[in-house]
Amino acid sequence: VYCVVEDVTDRVKLENERTEIQERLLTLINASPDIICFKDGKGRWLLANKADVEIFSLTDVNYFGKTDSELSQYTDEIYKEAFLTCEKTDEKAWEKKGISINEEIIPLKTGENRIYEVYKIPIFNNDGSKNGLVVLGRDITERKKHEKDLIIAKEEAEKANRLKSEFLANMSHEIRTPMNAIIGFSSILNNRITNPDLKKYTQRIESSSNNLLRLIEDILDISKIEAGHIEILKHASDIRELTEDIKKIFALKSAEKVIDFTVEIDENVPHFLFIDDFRIRQVLTNLVDNAVKFTETGGVAVSLSSKNLRVNKTDLILKIKDTGIGISTNEKQLIFENFRQSENRMTGKYGGTGLGLAISKHLTELMNGKITVKSELGIGSEFTVIFKDVIISEKITDKNIKNKNFEFKTKQLNILVAEDNLINRQLISALLENENFKITEAVNGKEVFELLEKELPDIILMDIQMPVLDGYEATKIIKKDDRYKNIPVIALTAHAIKDIVAKYHTIFDDYLTKPVSKDDILKSISNFISEK
Ligand code: ADP
What we know:
Layout: H1 9-31, E1 35-40, E2 45-48, H2 50-55, H3 68-74, H4 80-96, E3 100-107, E4 113-124, E5 130-139, H5 141-192, H6 196-226, E6 235-238, H7 239-256, E7 260-265, E8 272-275, H8 277-293, E9 299-307, E10 313-322, H9 356-366, E11 369-376, E12 380-391, E13 407-408, E14 413-418, H10 422-431, E15 437-442, H11 445-454, E16 459-463, H12 471-480, E17 489-493, H13 498-504, E18 510-513, H14 518-526, E19 530-531
Helix pairs in contact: 3-4, 5-6, 5-10, 6-9, 7-8, 8-9, 11-12
The structure holds adenosine-5'-diphosphate (ADP).
Adenosine-5'-diphosphate binds at residues 286, 290-291, 294, 322, 324-327, 335, 340-342, 345, 352-358, 381.
């Protein structure tokens, strides 16, 4: 009898430890709020944690060795769909041979659905055959709900913002119509009244209404910029002429203040560039308006120059320098924010909205430009606007060649005014009263054609928004008709939004934004008329 005695103390200890760790792992797996399940290579359940068993109401079912479709027989009908989906996504994980992540819906007995993010990890044997599948599922119902709420909140905020912009655009349009009459008629009164006391009052009405209009336009612009509704529309425009024009606008104001006003344009600046002339003019006017406003002695110098001039591109530099009150160092950035005005300006003295620079900065950046300022308190300021790589155009666009085929002043001009608003019609007639014009009026597009049948006018002033047949549709018809197409049509729009005008610019020969002044109308008409 041989007796082999082996000391197994260590082995037994080790096995006991293994059992202990397995038990701890099981406790851990069961404590997890996430679903954990092990399946074999044939999709049979080997181990499921408490969360998994509970969610499928499998507490009293021996799940061991059963597949998903088998298990669906032992439990409530409501889980059937979930089990079948699970089998399908298992299949995908096997095919993918790597972790697959799906969203799966598990219904509750309460009628509620829970959404799970399910990770499936396939494990293969060395010979490539299926070994088993680990399934982990996390309840993401709340997260999904928050995501959905966020999307809804974002959409609602965007909608509210859109509505705000639309409301502002409509309001501005509605306000402009009566403003048109106030500004127009007060300028007429101003010209007729000789009594100096009364003239003072009408001048105040005129300047206040102009300020009000400016305020409306600024608020509209900033809200449109913030809502992302500003579109930059580039076309070949004469930048030199645009800069020269500034002189005309500010000559009177600077003369009244007895300050110098100079405009210098470098010889090498090309004439025609692909720019949004309307927006550049707006930026330039804002900056020059401030420079003149804040300067009491000395003057304002505007300069336009070209840098890095190449065959088809150039950098463009606009400088507006003044010898005014200046801006302190710590306020140099703040003044570009909405409604910001510097401390040193005496309240009330200068007026303004505090929006001009914010608008100018946004617009410049929308045009890929940059605006900077150098300034010293009491010495003056210099604003610089730089646009890089502006495309040079050799071609003059259609808009720059006006068909000058009429005689002006020597011959009476026949003007057809199409405008549905009685006050505006009266205003235009009153504005043009002393000119050598014969004015015919139409209240909508349909009437325009009735009048055209009788007599061809030299010019048509066409309101865009009119009942029956609007100005846009009427002009489209005019421009297609050989009998009428050579008659210049000048659009009148109450929209502050010049981009609306840009939309129409291929149809109309020119356009004027209300409130229109006599000068605006005459200037526009003169584009189509040769004086003999
Ligand atoms: P505002 O309508 O008040 O002119 P802006 O946005 O155009 O609004 O300008 C904001 C502020 O920046 C002005 O109120 C003024 O305090 C300051 N500012 C702008 N331009 C000048 C300048 N050329 N000289 C001195 N201060 C200026």
